[in-house]
Amino acid sequence: MKKPFRLRLYAHRGASACAPENSLAAFEIALADGANALELDIHRTADGHFVVAHDPDGARTAGCDERIAEVGLDEVRRWTAGGESIPTLTEFLQAFPDTPLSIDLKPNDPTAVEPLLEVLSSHNGEARITVASFHDRLVRRVRRLGWQGRTALTRSEVAALRLAPLALAKRLIRGHAAQVPLRSGPIRLDRQGFLDRCRKLGIRADYWVVNDPDEARTLLTAGATGLMSDDPALLAPVFREFE
Length: 243
What we know:
- By secondary structure, the chain is α/β, with parallel strands linked by helices.
- It has a single domain, classed as Phosphatidylinositol (PI) phosphodiesterase (TIM Barrel, Alpha-Beta Barrel), CATH 3.20.20.
- 37% of the residues lie in helices and 23% in strands.
- The chain has 11 helices and 15 strands.
- Helix 7 (155-163) packs antiparallel against helix 8 and helix 10 (213-222) runs parallel beside helix 11 (232-241).
- The longest helix is centred in the C-terminal third of the chain and has 10 residues, at 192-201.
């Protein structure tokens, strides 16, 4: 039976268990280890360049306390994380021109959305990129600006997916992928009922972060369409069981 979605093994910030997170090296290792999609985070520098980084500053990964939004690209280029430099989004897109991507826009800055979409569209983005953010208003702005690619569900859409009658949820949800943790506080999002609702509404169910093969097998059996992992090599054999 043909599956409605291709199963995706996302490398969470690259193979971040094996190389510095969000580095080009980590993403290259991930693809070699069996990932077929990449998940990354981005911030914008003071002079308007997008860089691939999870934190708003370089303290944890590069030993630099400066905030990315308050320094220029030249300063960020001097930072190193585990010997790896921090790539720009443009460098990343050039390095991986055909790979499916999920890009998480971290700063809660609506002015960043339009220039981000310009960068993504110039690199075949609408055909292969899912735009995500923890800030609902940014995802809504992505859609209002006419982005023809995919977007992750907002938090309010995930709530509608969980709680609203299916007919109402279908009207309320405009996103394409529920990118969710296994649980949020006391709320379990890995239950069969949630996955069945995703399937009925034609929405991807992609979970983060999954590093245990047995857990991965259980989720894929239940109907998950994607898993985000720090170590794709651990999960690649499980994904092959479902090909």
